[in-house]
Design a protein that fits this description.
Shape: globular
Number of helices: 10
Radius of gyration: 19 Å
Strand order of the largest sheet: 11-10-9-8-12-13-16
CATH superfamily of the largest domain: Nucleotide-binding domain of ferredoxin-NADP reductase (FNR) module
Number of strands: 16
Number of domains: 2
Distance between the termini: 35 Å
CATH topology of the largest domain: Rossmann fold
CATH architecture of the largest domain: 3-Layer(aba) Sandwich
Strand content: 25-35%
Structural class: alpha/beta
């Protein structure tokens, strides 16, 4: 008899673990209830262990039949480094979701997806959903260097065209994603909507590049989240001069109405504390970090 996929025997167990780069890992996790309800744009909040930090991560993929979800996580601080040191067979303490408001998928015509760094992973399910809805998909993938470029082949499979940019020129075009955007506009490329996911500064300048052309532009805002329900206010952002909560109202918002400068200040508030925490963790877990 087949095992009931809703059994709790191995809930939140890592089924597949793959390192995509020295600092970016893919985790396929057994979470059947989440997989059954997931949509493009949803995220989860997970904890590696009792007392661990709650980490928000956008869903990259999900399989309702297998009861699994796929997450791609970049080691940026202590908690994400700790998570990426986990191995297949280990289990997360808990995974809550799906959370947030899914992206409204409709027929725009030509949709430009702009992904920077690990934001490419978050862009993938959204671009895929727009493709399935009958849109033309143009994707711009940006990374600092070739070794940090992820999911290029996956994005090519769902895109009508793909442009790769790297800061150092080690892959694709040397330059920024906004340079590629300007080239598309200069060539007269028809763009009906833009969806950007990546560093805050990148999304800000994507919005500024598209603003003169009046192209509807959206950005996925992923500031600090704690409870994922809007109760704590930790993910407060300003959109159109009004407060919004990224975990319940978003995370996708009108980029032309978003106060990116305020968002940058808020997300940098605990940067020094995060660095100290990571340094302390590295001192006592150097071997484990090196082998993940």
């Amino acid at each position: 008899m087949n095992k009931n996929i809703y059994s709790t025997d191995d809930l939140y167990r890592i089924v597949v673990k793959e390192d995509l780069s020295p600092a970016i890992s893919k985790h396929v996790i057994r979470a059947p209830l989440i997989a059954n309800k997931a949509k493009a744009g949803h995220f989860v909040i997970l904890r590696a262990r009792e007392g661990g930090e709650r980490i928000p991560v956008t869903l990259v993929n999900w399989d309702a039949k297998k009861g699994t979800i796929t997450l791609i996580i970049q080691s940026l601080g202590k908690s994400t480094t700790e998570i990426n040191a986990m191995k297949a067979g280990e289990s997360f303490m808990d995974v809550a979701g799906p959370l947030g408001t899914p992206v409204e998928i409709k027929k725009y015509g030509a949709v430009l997806g702009v992904g920077g760094g690990v934001g490419i992973a978050e862009l993938y399910p959204i671009a895929r959903a727009f493709k399935e809805a009958g849109n033309k998909i143009i994707s711009i993938l940006g990374a600092r260097s070739k070794d940090l470029l992820i999911l290029e082949d996956d994005m090519r499979r769902i895109s009508d065209s793909v442009i790769v940019t790297t800061d150092d020129g080690s892959a694709g075009i040397k330059g920024l994603v906004t340079d590629a955007m300007k080239t598309l506009y200069d060539k007269g490329e028809k763009i009906d909507a833009i969806f950007s996911i990546g560093p805050i500064i990148m999304m800000k300048f994507v919005a500024e590049t598209s603003r003169p052309h009046k192209t509807p532009t959206f950005a996925s805002l992923n500031p600090v989240m704690l409870d994922g329900t809007g109760m704590c206010g930790g993910c407060r952002v300003e959109v159109g001069g009004k407060p919004k909560f990224a975990c319940v109202d978003g995370p996708m918002f009108d980029a032309h109405q978003t106060n990116f400068d305020l968002l940058s200040k808020r997300t940098a508030a605990y940067r020094e504390h995060e660095k100290l925490s990571l340094d302390e963790y590295a001192k006592t877990h150097e071997c484990k970090i090196g082998l993940h």
